[in-house]
User: Which sequence fits this backbone?
């Protein structure tokens, strides 16, 4: 996994806007994974009892892929359209220990 960028985003979303936020997030994730070769994985989940609490696991091929992602039109649209919906955001840099999917 050397060179890959792994981040966990912890977000709290305004509960009154959760459905709109989820639609914008889904649009952004789909565009990123489909159109950006350096975006290896974006997985978003919410807590069952507190759906306004979301976690996004992000994996990028390298630092350049991550920086490119931040400049894409679909990411910039997501940030602009959700700015008033996000009550808190914490980005955690992570080291992959074991990551596998089927």
Assistant:
């Amino acid at each position: 996994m050397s060179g890959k960028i792994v981040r966990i985003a912890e977000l709290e979303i305004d509960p009154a806007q959760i459905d709109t936020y989820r639609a914008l997030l889904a649009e952004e994730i789909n565009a990123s994974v489909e159109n950006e070769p350096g975006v290896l994985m974006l997985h978003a989940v919410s807590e069952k009892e507190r759906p306004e609490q979301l976690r996004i696991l992000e994996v990028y091929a390298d630092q350049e892929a991550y920086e490119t992602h931040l400049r894409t039109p679909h990411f910039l649209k997501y940030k602009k359209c959700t700015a008033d919906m996000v009550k808190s955001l914490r980005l955690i840099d992570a080291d992959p220990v074991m990551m596998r999917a089927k």
About this structure: The radius of gyration is 14 Å. The chain has one domain: 5-94. Residues 82 and 94 are 24 Å apart (CA to CA). The chain has a mean pLDDT of 96.
